[in-house]
Known about the structure:
This protein is mostly beta strands. Helix content is 0%, strand content 53%. The protein has an 18-stranded mixed β-sheet that branches. Strands 20, 21, 22, 25, 29, 30, 31 and 32 form an eight-stranded antiparallel β-sheet that branches. Strands 19, 23, 24, 26, 27 and 28 form a six-stranded antiparallel β-sheet that branches. The radius of gyration is 22 Å and the shape is globular. It starts with 6 loop residues before the first strand and ends in a 9-residue tail after the last strand.
Amino acid sequence: MLKKVMLIIVGILVLAVIGLVIQERISPPEPALAGASTLTVLSGDEVFLSGERVTERTVVIEQGDIVKTGNNSCALVTFEDGSTVELEPDTEISIKELTETSMTVWQEVGRTWCGIKKLVGPFSEFEVETPSAGAVVRGTLMDIDVDAAGNTIVSAFEGIVEVVAEGVSRTLEAGMQSLIEKGKAPEEPEPIPPPKNRLEVTIRGAAWALVVDSPQERSVGVVPPGLVVNQLPRATTTGPQAEPQFIMVPVPEEEGENTYHVVLYGKDDGGKANVEVKGYVEGQNVFFEETPDAVDVGPYEVEDDTERKYVADLTVTVDQDGLITSGELGEFELKQTEGPGKVEIKDWAVARSDEPTAPQANFSASVETVEIKGVEQEAIHFTNLSTGDITDYSWDFGDENTSEEMNPSHVYSEGGGYLVSLEVSGPGGEDKAHKEIYVLVIPPQPEG
């Protein structure tokens, strides 16, 4: 029974996610872990299970266990049906209930990235509780952030989430979030703010791609024969039949160099592939990198638990103000190594490459200032956050102007409110998203 101050969030799967495909290319979990719920250390040395430091890569967890991460560590809890709860640093959860039909997690504090998969599995109910919120979810990607006072922000990245507290119900569509203060009703949904720093990676041609962060080795993208992976919190990726493939990755606002790996896997017989990477700070494009020549990608092969892939390092520099200043994409090199990161097959959200995934439209908008004929004006950069298999994009900017670009920028001639829509389509169907934006047009500056 939830306490009076709690709320209920009901998640409804929108994306069509099809059954689990076991691939020879990945070593199966150790026998002791098969069919078990597990805890995997992603980074750092401060991951604790019921008060004891975890010294192995992966261990079994049970009902009643408490998982806690320190300020330099990330961890991943994977349940039997493939659902996951990823813990950011300084996060604590406990496994309140773990039965054949239901699972309940208590999130005391910190931030989690929950991937609740509608796969064939034992659970009929998946619930996350916090001091101010309870979430009953099945088939969605959501971010849950609990502060020291117990206030909660719930953000829906895929699917639809209904938020109910103190007798008030709110519906969160993909791209929306709600603040729930302890003991209060949820606030009106509002758009999830775009990350201050982000990478936009576009892949065209005969390859699927992953972006993998370091040292956590979390992956987002597509691997053969069309498996969708999304372990990076608040990242998005299109599906295996999308052309081109698009991946958006938030970059931490911490000074220093962030290292990523861009991994290419050959589709079918392989061929040519092109990659471009753009870095953005609050909507402003600060760097652009691309492969100077198309990468020759061979067909995907597995031998002795290693796989053929092509890997390039991507280095992103962040200054003392927490802003991206530059980025550099290295050359792609053929690698014969193990899988992309610290993942087991059941960790993955899966979409069969021969059965297209229905698109789900979503986007964000940010302001950038451009100069046109000597006059500074606001341009709005639209970032596509849609998921699924997408081949066509259709934007309506609300001022009788349109675009078919994936991530367009648009200059409005007059200030005011505009209803912007994005319609996406592909082999699995079509979907449409609407958002209202307000535009301030900067007047010409006086000379002198």
